[in-house]
Amino acid sequence: MPALHIEDLSEKEKLKMEVEQLRKEVKLQRQQVSKCSEEIKNYIEERSGDDPLVKGIPEDKNPFKEKGSCVIS
């Protein structure tokens, strides 16, 4: 699908697109930020023990660990 350039549209076409977008948005189910943020916080805290960015990777399981060192003599 080719990209639309908004400057190439007539005022009527722009308004029609805006109305279509607003119709889509009004159908979305909305939730309170306070409730969603609490759920996200709980989700993160429950899984933080398994997160290698928080916990770290054991040396024996680290696939990026250097295999050896380079010695220049």
Q: Summed up, what is this model?
A:
The protein has 73 residues and is mainly α. The protein has three helices and no strands.
Structure, explained:
- The chain has a domain of 25 residues.
- Helix content is 48%, strand content 0%.
- The model has no long low-confidence stretch (mean pLDDT 87).
- By secondary structure, the protein is mostly helical.
- It is found in: Cell membrane.
Secondary structure tally: strands: 0
What percent of residues are in strands?
Answer: under 5%
Structural class: mainly alpha
Number of helices: 3
Low-confidence stretches are none
Order of helices and strands: HHH
Termini gap: 61 Å
Question: Could you give a short account of the major beta sheet?
Answer: none
User: Could you tell me the mean pLDDT?
Assistant: 87
Helicity range of the residues?
40-55%
What would the principal axes of the Cα set say about the shape? elongated
Radius of gyration: 26 Å
Keywords: Cell membrane, Coiled coil, Lipoprotein, Membrane, Methylation, Prenylation, Transducer
Family: Belongs to the G protein gamma family.
GO cellular component, one term: heterotrimeric G-protein complex
Main location: membrane
